[in-house]
Task: structure prediction
Amino acid sequence: MKKNKSNIFSNEIFLFPIGILFSLVFLLGDNVGAFSFLRKGISYISQPIYYSANTLSREISSYTKAIVELDEFKKNYEELSLKLYEKDVENSYYAMLLEENESLRKQISFGNKDTKYVLAKTLYDSSVDSLRVDQGRASGIEIGDVVTVGNVYIGIVSECDEKGSLIKLANSKNSSLEVTLVEGDWQNVTKSKDLGVLSKAVVTGSAEGIKIENISNSANIQNGSLVVVNDSRVGKNLVLGYLVDISTNPAEISRTGFVSPIVDYDKLITVFVNIGY
Result:
């Protein structure tokens, strides 16, 4: 056992100076270019490994940077979306105030000042021939009350509860009104003003729109003539719309056509319900 330990120790002492000698030889040889072939061989082998590792590290760095930037972009996008939503809410609020102010102005300017009205806001309803509003019997509204905006006819209350009402529009299949056709602008029509009547007629609601019938064939009626409601059931001198698509057959006893409403029912927000004097 002692002999083996002595041999190992002797080998280590012997290898140490040999290792130093080889190191000096390689160092001196590399300085004079004696081992350039070995350097080139090692470079030839290691260069692809270095290039691949370097490329991979750049890709990993780029991917990590993209993830960080994507997270920041998401945060910025969410903040911007929230700000835009707040602006939309604010703009919608101001738009509703402006619309209500304009509706009140029309009601004061063109409405019957001797009549009491209830201001009502329209509610979402998928129906095309009726409107729901947020006022009902608690506000004094009853079935049969007439709904207007200024001097423009909107419809009649057909259903009513404590908190809301359903308004039947002029294009409803159950709607029928006596009207007159006149010349002039709708803003000049008032309750007390006598109008130059061109012809009397009847309007009814239909799936195609508001039909107008029984127009006198002898009257000088053209597309664009103003259609005004004059019906004892709803009132006098309430503007409905303009005559369009009038028939031109001279053999007919009377003519027919359609009425294009003054207002867009889908865009109504504020209406006024006539609840009496």
Notes: The CA atoms of residues 177 and 191 lie 17 Å apart. The first strand starts at residue 116 and ends at 123.
